Fold this protein.
Amino acid sequence: MNQLSLHGIVPPVVTPLTEDMQIDAPSLRRVVRHLIDGGVHGLFILGSSSEVVFLDPARRADVIRIAVDEAAGRVPVIAGVIDTSTDRCVEHARQAHELGVDGLVLTAPFYARTSQTEIVDHFCYVRDAVDLPLIAYDIPVCVNIKLERDTLRALYERKAIVALKDSSGDDGNMRMVMRDFASHPDFAVLTGSEITVDYAMLGGAHGAVPGLANVDPAGYVRLYEAAKKGDWVAARAEQQRLIELFEIVFQAYPDVSRNASGVGAFKTAMQMMGIIAHRHMNRPNAVLSDVHAAKVRAIVEKSGLLQAG
Amino acid sequence: MNQLSLHGIVPPVVTPLTEDMQIDAPSLRRVVRHLIDGGVHGLFILGSSSEVVFLDPARRADVIRIAVDEAAGRVPVIAGVIDTSTDRCVEHARQAHELGVDGLVLTAPFYARTSQTEIVDHFCYVRDAVDLPLIAYDIPVCVNIKLERDTLRALYERKAIVALKDSSGDDGNMRMVMRDFASHPDFAVLTGSEITVDYAMLGGAHGAVPGLANVDPAGYVRLYEAAKKGDWVAARAEQQRLIELFEIVFQAYPDVSRNASGVGAFKTAMQMMGIIAHRHMNRPNAVLSDVHAAKVRAIVEKSGLLQAG
Amino acid sequence: MNQLSLHGIVPPVVTPLTEDMQIDAPSLRRVVRHLIDGGVHGLFILGSSSEVVFLDPARRADVIRIAVDEAAGRVPVIAGVIDTSTDRCVEHARQAHELGVDGLVLTAPFYARTSQTEIVDHFCYVRDAVDLPLIAYDIPVCVNIKLERDTLRALYERKAIVALKDSSGDDGNMRMVMRDFASHPDFAVLTGSEITVDYAMLGGAHGAVPGLANVDPAGYVRLYEAAKKGDWVAARAEQQRLIELFEIVFQAYPDVSRNASGVGAFKTAMQMMGIIAHRHMNRPNAVLSDVHAAKVRAIVEKSGLLQAG
Amino acid sequence: MNQLSLHGIVPPVVTPLTEDMQIDAPSLRRVVRHLIDGGVHGLFILGSSSEVVFLDPARRADVIRIAVDEAAGRVPVIAGVIDTSTDRCVEHARQAHELGVDGLVLTAPFYARTSQTEIVDHFCYVRDAVDLPLIAYDIPVCVNIKLERDTLRALYERKAIVALKDSSGDDGNMRMVMRDFASHPDFAVLTGSEITVDYAMLGGAHGAVPGLANVDPAGYVRLYEAAKKGDWVAARAEQQRLIELFEIVFQAYPDVSRNASGVGAFKTAMQMMGIIAHRHMNRPNAVLSDVHAAKVRAIVEKSGLLQAG
């Protein structure tokens, strides 16, 4: 299981859409090249920033096929199998396995409320169904329940997970998790935060899964490499530059939802940079207006990623 | 649109499962007969108590076919089209429409966070896709966002909804909603509570969608009929009897999750009453142990629905 | 202990302030007369709507002295002893006892997080310190913790409380509490809701503690009397009239906080009705602007409590 | 105002109590010496870990007198003026000013809900009343509201605050706050976390206010000094050692509340180290049992702060 050795910058790859809401294959291929050219260490497709829960199995399959083909083995590709229930997750997992991904990312079930024990069972059912490493995804803001420290330990002991993606926003608890796994270096912990990657690396994390890396993969790779070398001054400087860029996610909120403001800003910046054709998201996410887009542009220009227009 | 005229007791029909997790058709037919024999005024299939988010489209179709066939037009059948995103809900809606249901029940999108404006758009997209009346389902404990008073008014004004099922647990806000729609008698408000149905009726609600009505439909029908006649003493007495029965939902918690303890208790009681063959739920919900089941049995016996064993 | 026999309409009496933020004695006396003339069955001074946590011991003593003197034994006066810790509550309780109140109202401690067991101890310490009946006050929105069903039962069994004021907004749980105490008629349950008093009465409550009764005590008394007679149609009609009046609390929100918008609206209406001299609240609550006040006035006029100006 | 120049390790000083619940002056003097001997850069008395909301003005005054006297100007002493309302905070502030503290720490009002605008007014009223620098204290878990980024900026612009103590647990938002104040080096940001002090320092914080520094001040000072020198490897190693020690706070939970388990563990360790006479807290906080205390002891021994008994 541990051959995955997840580490480094593993962006949650945005899902470009055509005007009729299909997967925009040429744009997605450009995204994958943009990220690999930027030096990333893996690709996380079908995550929250990929609008995974808006995609049916056919479009999920399209995303996997394109990403796996374009990545061509240069970096591992891990895929979210995120859905409301165990059976649905198993179906996604089987499809992803057939299509050649290197690992699977799984949250707690959602909508229906489950217990920590039922969450452990959920992961074990998926592990039993598919011979691929599983990464636990802690994202209470979406699934309304926390993967507790004891739950993560139980899952590891039952050989159900090889890594954690922590998008809880609770850096203190994540620190305690890293302490719990300090004597298990085969277990990887990656932060889902865009703005505390240097913190996580200092605390012993193996890497990061920042949505903003869609816009600036090279920046996050520099941050990671500096941290790996122990050059914390350089890591911090890069992080602070990226914090400035991160302001793009707040420009349309509360005119649109947090989700539409955040992922929409990534797509808007990538459209301006010529990477993707369109910036809209799946229904019912509102699209950023031209006024919002202009604010995003000003921030991206200031960061040096775009020439002033 | 208003031909639906939703009112009365409309139980969220539990979904009986075979040992290999398929829809148990004979059991489901018995459930439908049990409910219609109990005098209910409609059937709400594929709701939260039906474990809707655990069911793939094929099994959702099975449930609809069986329920519509067995109901045979005696009462309206409304179906939940509950899922994470607009497109998925539209697919469910089209399938349900083809299979002959009389109305559709829709929540806000979940997992991804949306705004009240995006929720309005979500409902309008589904309305535009299928020519069936839509019922709004307010259940923040599952979808993590409230259908606000202004949102419900906007949806009604845009002719997107004909009714509300309020499972928010916030009877005060539901009272304000009934006030907002007081001059629109074509808009129906039903409570999702098991234990404050007499309250809701006193406040002007058109009916109730109580999960516990799976176990005792006749009791809830008596409650409703008493309330309709203005016999509040009889309505309250029936409600208080049902409150005693409602204690079944707490017997397995916190050994299992709230969902498994609640819906699992309904199934356990129905199994004991000979209505369904098995009491297990979809993975990963834990099944009630024999110890839990014995506690449920004692309460059901006390209510007179079962002979003491 | 049970000589208190709390029941009926027991308004949480607003605290009128002079321009230099002292207790406005003539206004407070007029409030007390206005309420007793309206037929209320008790007075709850120093509650949330009385701005209790903004008042130091000296001003709390002023309120008690004036209210007890003006009530002159015609109705029982109960006083909140609401504060962060046991010792502070004991001090308030001793002062209130000396000044002649008939009962004390106590919440869980707040700011510091406590357990349900520590809450039981808290109540027992106050009970041991002062020979007066204690009323438990469940208001999680202010103290951030719920008085759970088991906690209330434990407090009753330990003879620490004689009643509950339920301001949780969770009418379902309050129903279960009334079920728990059904065979203990000496234990009184009163709702803190303004808009579901008829519900609570139908469910077996002994009365209500509605802030809006400061503005229209006679209306709430009519509601209560109708409910006591079993005239639920009249009770509901009165409740619905009061729901229209309740809209005053929303007029200044979110320009000011919910607290300032709600209690500020009560004070504004009472000022317009000639009962109190000023409408401002304690610092830092914002005062309602003239624009807000005009909106409040329009609603009060529509209810018939004020002549159109 | 900026003469305070708050920085470094500023422990929230625990409040030792005598058996009859008075301030244990000899123990408190030993605590102060223990901390100053440990090299701390300031003392924060009357904070959450000091059980401030359990103390009346007289005991608050005792704490201030003893701490100021024992510190004797060697390090600045800042005092919490934490209470429910503006007027109460002003009273505490005046007393603290008279007794010679160097700065004041203030939260949002609590129990009554306020708006961000009313919070700004609250701070300005206190600033106007007392000529001492104010430190904003963000602790939503206790006061149930967040000090938002815009609020902090408004307070700084109105010259109402000179620093922030961030105990929100939201290290991402704290990072954004540090970004907002990057060009205002006269504004200090300190973390209230025990377990992410190295993170905060890397992000540009000026110091920390860790409750655990009561037990091991020298450890936190080493952490701080290493970070100041840019020796992040040493800072992290010290932090990781302190994370192991931090496990003491979880030993009695959930048998007692989080507050009693956490502060109670600090007191228990300090009692074992001979610094304070008793480990109990103010009512109604439960005292740690001997079983709990033995678990705490084992962890403290492992850290090297106590000889194995």
